[in-house]
Amino acid sequence: MTRFAPSALASLALLGCHGSLPAAAPTILPLRTLHLYETGVGYFERSGELGSASAATLPVPGGHLDDALKTLVILSADGKVSVQGFAFGSSVSKGMARAQSGLPLEAGAPLTYRALLQSLKGASVEVTTKAGLVRGRIVDVVEDTETKEPDEKKAGDEKKTGASESKELTVLLLSDKGEIVRIRAADTTAVRPTDPAYALRLGSSLDALSTANASTARPLTLLGGAKGPVTFGYIAETPVWRASYRLIFSPDRRSAVLQGWALVHNDTDEPWRGVQVSLVNGRPDSFLFPLAAPRYGKRALVTPENELSTVPQLMQKTPDEIWGDHLDLAESAGGGSSTSMGYGSGSGSGVGYGSGSGKITGYSGTITGSSSLLSVGDLAGVSSATGVESGALFTYALGDRLDLGAHHSALVPFLSQSIGVEAITWIDGSSARAAARFVNETKQTLPAGTIAFFADAKNGAFVGESALDRLKPGERRFIEFGADLDVDLEQTVTSTKEETKKVRFVNGALEEHFLRTSVGEWKLENRSGQGRDVYVVLKYDRNTKLTGPDKQDYDTASNRPVGVFRVEASSKVTKAVTAVEGLSRKTQLSSLKAARLLELAASKNLLADERAALGEAAAKQKDLEETRAALDKVGHDITTTEQDIVRLRENLKAAAVEKSNAPNPFAKRLLDAEDALASHRKKREALDKELGARRDAVKTALEKLK
Predict the structure, then answer these.
(1) What is the C-alpha to C-alpha distance for residues 421 and 455, in angstroms, rounded to an integer?
(2) Measuring CA to CA, which residue among 176, 668, 229, 260 is closest to residue 450?
(3) Where is 329: in which H helix or E strand?
(4) Are 29 and 58 in contact (CB under 8 A)?
(5) Reduced to 3 DSSP states, what percent helix, strand and coil does the chain have, rounded to the nearest 5?
(6) Residue 476, exposed/middle/buried by CB under 10 A (0-12, 13-18, 19+)?
């Protein structure tokens, strides 16, 4: 087993430190202002007076160095301060770190004591041993096998034990006196290279190979002798700041106070002292870019036509040694000889309440939504104005400067304002929910976050929580935060009817523009001691005229209309709700039915020329349907006849086996069936042509509706 000297390990870790005096601690420019962004970066501003005895530095973790280098900016009030630049320890990759220090190149290879010593091969060193100091150059580091003979046994003892072997790490040194010296690692207390550049290379390599390399401080030190007050700004990665809200209703539950709180984190090694923190509500572009580490371009390797070695062939070997013995070849050849030469990667959705859908038989079609020809109403007209941001970014500046320890977090308030929030009951489906009609009446965009609801300030009871979308000024949301067990709704649809008002033929489809009138009876009950404004999500199209609700609203997040009903405390209300929707339906030409066309032709709501075109199309469609039916019958006859022919052929074969002079009865039947099959196929061909012509006739008649 290899034995290591702990004292030597400690000494090797302090390479290059002997005889050096501690440097004066640099002055860290204090952090004065910090802007935190939603994209996970922070803009740091450090201010101070240049010209002091010690150099000014900006403390930047290694993982943030690239960000700082690509965004560093100088801000001076008078614009007269100039600097020569900033110096910092060069960054190297792990592969480069191993290569420049002579360490094993394999990624993840352990940095053992032996590996560190082998990296010094050829270097001039001072080796401190128990016997004294030895100077020289390291030739190699080897493991010698040491054999220990057993001790002699006294008379009467058992037989001697066998010899034992152990491996000993040994440094071979060419001393200044020209002697080859063997030094056991166990006798070594320190190894120091006399070239200080080695210690610098090893230190840089250990920084790169360290598991905490990204968080290790990589300060930017100011070059030159600039003087005067100055501010340096730069971007660095920071934890994303997150918002959460508290909403406290007024006693009448028609207004509230909105409190905004921000969760901020100081994940640096530096405590914040009196820092002005601003929370930026916006997403400026920011990216990672490798900038700090030196980069090397690739050059093409051009070699001589004849490859030549940098080491003479006969420097350490004879021609016989180069050739080798080749005993295996000699034995396989039976003693003969041979010669050869060669080179070697908002809001939830729901069914809602509203009218039942009417069904009209005799036709099929797809309701595509609002009619483009019939304007009935606009249920979305009551929606709030679209939110508008006055700038790309909104900034919330904290009222007081912040003190926050290193690797600590804080919950800090950034907003407190009275806004028009109304407590409501929200019904979207079968259950009633406690909710709030929330309008952003602030002048700034509210970032997304959790929101907790409380009763009035006097009672201060928690009533529920939810999530708030990102809201621009003026935008509105309906936010659910709990169950409302005191409100019930029972809805009954009493009638549904449709009236076609306009028809037209567009792109091979018949468009029907119609009014659908739905009448229903709505029963609402409020068992609580307070009145309720009940907001019911409807499934009507926005192109609708609605009567019955006390008010109308619109959910812009889900694009659905909302009916509002006022129900006083401990009371029941019955409302007749009528909705007239302006809708359109498309029916493809292949799906048209003569019965539906006749029904439309009889509609008194259509113009005379429209009814005439529909009547003509209905007659042509009837002919088309008769032809299609005849074609289907011929297809059935062809299938039946083909099956008969197969059966008759089998019977004819069986009858031919019998030895009889009587005429075969199946022969004539087979010939008749084959004649019938030919007739059916000819008829099908004719019907196919007729079907195409009659389809064109229907289309020609409908094109008059354009």
Answers:
(1) 12
(2) 260
(3) helix 327-332
(4) yes
(5) 25, 35, 40
(6) buried
- Rounded to the nearest angstrom, the gap between the alpha carbon of residue 440 and the centroid of all alpha carbons in its chain is 28
Nearest to 456 by CA among 292, 646, 250: 250
- Is residue 469's pLDDT more than 60? yes
In terms of Cα–Cα distance, which of 409, 414, 159, 89 is closest to 262? 414
Assign residue 669 a region: left if phi > 0, alpha if psi is -120 to 50, beta otherwise?
Answer: alpha
8 sits in which H/E element: helix 6-13
Q: Is the pLDDT of residue 312 over 70?
A: no
Distances in Å between the alpha carbon of 187 and those of 3, 169, 440? 11, 10, 78
Closest to 352 (Cα-Cα) out of 478, 465, 481, 467: 478
pTM higher than 0.70 for the full model? no
Cβ neighbour number for residue 601 with a 10 Å cutoff: 19
Tens-place pLDDT, residues 263-306: 999 988 889 999 999 998 878 888 888 887 777 788 888 888 77
Q: What is the DSSP letter of 91?
A: P
Structure-model confidence comparison of residues 199 and 278, the more confident one: 278
d(CA 166, CA 143): 10
Distances (CA, A) of 391 to 281, 421, 665: 11, 25, 97
34: its two tokens: 């910090």
Q: For residues 656 and 18, what is the distance between their CA atoms, to the nearest angstrom?
A: 119
Residue 233 contacts residue 116 (beta carbons within 8 Å): no
d(CA 260, CA 258): 7
How far apart, in whole angstroms, are the C-alpha atoms of residue 489 and residue 526? Answer: 9
> Rg of the chain over CA atoms, in angstroms?
46
Give the CA-trace dihedral at 106, 107, 111, 116, to 10 degrees.
Answer: 50
Two tokens, residue 678? 């030919």
**Both structure tokens of 573:** 């209300």
Mean pLDDT taken over the chain: 79
Q: In one letter, which amino acid is 528?
A: S
pLDDT value of position 562: 93
Q: Which amino acid is at 107?
A: A
End-to-end Cα spacing for the chain: 98
Name which of 111-120, 192-201, 202-211, 601-610 the model is least confident about: 202-211
- What angle do the packed helices 594-601 and 608-657 form, to 10 degrees? 160
Long-range contacts, 184-188 (Cβ 8 Å, 24+): 185/3, 185/4, 185/5, 185/8, 185/113, 186/3, 186/5, 187/5, 187/129, 187/130, 187/131, 188/5, 188/7, 188/8, 188/127, 188/128, 188/129
CB atoms within 10 A of CB 108: 6
